[in-house]
Write a structure and sequence with these properties.
By secondary structure, this protein is of the alpha+beta class. It contains three helices and five strands. The protein has helices at about 10-15, 30-35, 40-45, and strands at about 1-5, 20, 50-55, 60, 75. A five-stranded mixed β-sheet has the order 2-1-5-3-4. β3 and β4 form a beta hairpin. The radius of gyration is 12 Å and the shape is globular. It starts with a strand and ends in a 6-residue tail after the last strand.
Length: about 80
Amino acid sequence: MATIVMLGKLADLAQAATIDLPLPLSKPLDWEGLKAALPSALAEALDDPRIRVAINGALLPNKAKLQAGAGDEIALLPPVSGG
């Protein structure tokens, strides 16, 4: 199981701030696998190149390199707005 944490508009799309996601035992969760496991509206929003991803508090320089395992926390970070 991995915990997916969504912030801002991503939490609104998911209708939840967190989702507990069962993981396959045979391989780590990658970016495409994560998107496939999420609700379609949320998965589509993740195609925005401004969306950032952190795993266990460490920001990934390239979200396509995601490799998550059991017990990991994956944070999905929308672009910062404000002024």
